[in-house]
Structures are given as C-alpha cells and as structure tokens.
Design goal:
The complex is a heterodimer of chains A (242) and B (181). Chain A is an alpha+beta fold. Chain A has nine helices and seven strands. In chain A, helix 1 (6-13) crosses helix 3 (29-46). Helices cover 63% and strands 0% of the residues of chain B. The chains are: A alpha+beta (242), B mainly alpha (181).
Chain lengths: 242, 181
C-alpha cells in the first residue's frame, strides 16, 4: 500500500479530508505517524510568543483615526483629543472638472493621500512652530533649497515635515484654520514631477471626495504650491490666494 | 460626477477591528523589525480604507485585508531590491535565494522555537511561511488563504504541503515517502 502525499495528509490536519483519506489512515501506520508529526508542527508554531501578540496601540489608533476622519461626529472627537484636526478620511480623490481643467487627477490624488495618511499615521509634522521664519529655515535646511513659508489670512501655522510627492522629495507645511481644520501646503522640489504637474494648474482648485479640496497656487518665490484641506473649495481657494 | 461608497467608514472599521491582531502578527513575520511591522500594518490599513469599495463580500474581509498588506510588503521589497529577490515561485529552488534578515529582535523571537524548526521557517519561501503561519496559528481556511495569498485554492494546498514537508524534514527523518494517492 502506497502512502498518501502530503497534500492529502495535510487535509486531515485541516479538517477537510475525504472519507477515502481517513479510511487509508486506519490502515497505514506510516501515514498516521506523519499526520501526528504535522499536528506537532502546528502546536509548536502556536506556542511561539508572537502567536499571542496583540496589535499595538499605534495600529489600533490608525483605524480609529481613519474612522474619525470620515465622519463629522468622529472628527469632532478627534479634534477634541488631539487639539487639532485629523482629516483622515482617506479616499481616492475625485476631481470635479467639467471643463477638463482643474488640478490634474494624479497630482490631486497624490497630495490628498499624503495629507490624509500623515494624520492617520501621526506623522503630520516633524517640527512644530508657529514662526514662519523658523519653519522656513528648518524646511530649507532639510530640503536643500530655499523655501518661503507664507502666512495666510485665516490659517495658523502649525509646523512642517519632509515628505515625497511621486517619489521625489518635497516639503509639507501644516496649517489649521479657525475651526481647527488641517491644511497641508506641499512644496514640490524644483524640476520634480510634482512641480511639472503643477505647471498648467496654477490658480486651479478642485473639489475632492469626502470634502477634500486641492488648490495649486503660486508661491512667493514663483514656484507652485499645492494646498489640501477638508474645506469648501471656495474657502480653500480664498485662503490659498491670500 | 460622484462615486458613492458602498461601505461607510464606520462599517469598515467594525469589519476590520476583529482582525487587527492577525494583521499585526503577519506584519511582524513579514517585516524585519517591530517598527517596520507597525508601519506596514498602518499603511495596509490606510490602503484598505482607501479602496474599501472594492470589498464586495464583507465575509472575506480578513483575507482581503491580509492580501492588501502582503501585496504592499511584496511591492516594497520589489522596489527596494529589484534584482536580488525572487518574489514568487513555489519551488524552494525558485525562491530560495533570499536576502538574509539581520534583525536581532526577530531572531530572538523566533529562537523560542526549537532550533530545527526555527531554521526551517527561516529557509522557507515567504509564500510558504506565510501560508503555514496563517493556517496553523491564525486558523485561516483554505478559501481565506487563497484570498490572502492571491492564489487558487489548489496552490494553497500545495504550498501548505511543501511547507509542512520542509519543516518536518528539519524536525525528524521522513518515515513515509509519498507516492501519490
């Protein structure tokens, strides 16, 4: 009598064996021993300390943040908890551009994703300061390029972080409006794909899904900036243009 | 133009929440360090949240979110080491050329296993190690494994069989040579 292959014997372990397989085991000591050995393997694996580990608070918090950002009720809780907004309603952006203009979809998608994920992951800003000169200095040093950090009526400066857009370095300046809503202003690197994507979109604002709005404006130094926030398009456009 | 979501955020989080521990543990097996695992699991949650409309059957959410994370992990490896890693292939000799994982924390964790099993798990191709882990420790069904691994059920069966055979090979001399059913 030939022994059964490991796939069939594994089905015994996994509780999905056919009647013929079980019948074979009744008469084959070798196969029965191999099944027992396989069962022992499973027991050893389940005894590893990792098998009892629980998800860390950061992972649980990410899910909470995503949920909070997607509902107004949750968003209020999130604001109350952090003292800041985590507009983490992550979703692919859908640009409303009935005339074919507006912010390029790929650029808007990239900017919104980075904006939302940074809050969901708790990495929205690396340095915290309300001083534009201090933030500009930190960002300029980090990016290796001169960056000007503007003040905008209705927006309070929070801080900045280094990030990437389309895999190339970029800066992100974080603001909040009077209601606590977060606005990220991305600073694409000169010559980067993000900057090129901005070329034909300066002055454009596009409404995104879940209330996210993306605007491309010209910075003080003439290079483009991309603003993202969970604000009505008219409002973000207004503050974007100063 | 608008696209309506079929799965609202609250419903989505209620579906995912019971599986966070499984997600975390697989991340720990896939990522070289605890910090990398945390980052991987968080990124996977964000990705899953973003594409939650694609989850057509809520009953398959566990396999679906695990697949999201595993694909993310494999893409990262591919991007980082495009010429050094073989990402697919069920035969050990096809996927055997693996990068060493120099993570002391992970090694200490795995050292709780008997040495032979530890070495055998390290030598397994990722798809076999993940399959045996998700089946034996997390109790995924063949259907869930197929969803999580993105393969047909037949491939799941063969991966499990190969993983078990390889592990047994290290744990004890084979006493039974298969010759087919």
């Amino acid at each position: 009598m030939s022994c059964l292959n490991d796939e069939l014997l594994g089905e015994v372990i996994d509780g999905v064996a056919a009647a013929a397989t079980l019948a074979h085991l009744e008469n084959c000591d070798a196969c029965s021993e191999r099944v027992e050995a396989m069962q022992g393997l499973g027991a050893l694996l389940r005894a590893v300390p990792l098998a009892r580990e629980r998800a860390p608070a950061a992972v649980v918090g990410t899910l909470r943040g995503l949920e909070a950002g997607a509902s107004s009720e949750g968003r209020r809780r999130w604001r109350a908890f952090t003292g800041f907004v985590a507009a983490a309603a992550a979703a692919a952006v859908l640009v409303v551009s009935p005339t074919g203009g507006g912010v390029p979809v790929a650029l808007a998608d990239e900017a919104v994703s980075h904006h939302l994920r940074s809050f969901a992951n708790g990495t929205a800003w690396e340095m915290e300061s309300t001083d534009p000169a201090q933030v500009a200095s930190w960002l300029s040093t980090g990016l290796g390029q001169e960056v000007q950090v503007p003040t905008r009526p209705g927006l309070e400066l929070v801080g900045a972080r280094r990030c990437s857009l389309f895999g190339e370095r970029a800066g992100a300046v974080i603001y909040r409006d009077v209601a606590g809503t977060a606005v990220t202003m991305f600073v694409p690197a000169p010559g980067s794909a993000a900057e090129r994507a901005c070329e034909r979109a300066v002055g454009e604002c596009s409404q995104a899904r879940d209330g996210q709005t993306v605007c491309v404006v010209e910075g003080e130094d003439g290079s483009p900036r991309v603003l993202v926030g969970e604000l009505p398009a008219a409002q973000l456009c207004q503050v974007a243009q100063g | 133009m608008t696209i309506e979501r079929t799965l609202d955020a609250h419903h989505f989080t209620r579906l995912i929440e019971p599986h966070l521990d499984v997600l975390h543990r697989l991340a720990r097996r896939l990522a070289p360090t605890r910090a990398d695992a945390e980052d991987l699991a968080q990124e996977a949650l964000v990705r899953a949240f973003e594409k939650r409309d694609a989850l057509r059957d809520p009953g398959k959410v566990r396999g679906w979110v695990l697949a999201t994370m595993r694909n993310l992990h494999l893409n990262r490896i591919r991007d980082e080491k495009p010429h050094l890693l073989v990402l697919t292939g069920d035969k050990p000799d096809e996927a055997g050329a693996r990068e060493p994982r120099g993570d002391l924390e992970r090694e200490l964790l795995d050292r709780h296993l008997p040495d032979e099993l530890f070495l055998a798990m390290r030598a397994l191709p990722e798809e076999q190690a993940s399959a045996i882990w998700l089946r034996e420790v997390e109790g995924l069904s063949y259907e869930e494994l197929a969803e999580a691994m993105g393969t047909p059920i037949g491939t799941v069966r063969s991966r499990l069989a190969r993983a078990r055979a390889a592990l047994l090979e290290e744990m004890q001399p084979a006493r039974c040579r298969a010759s087919g059913a």
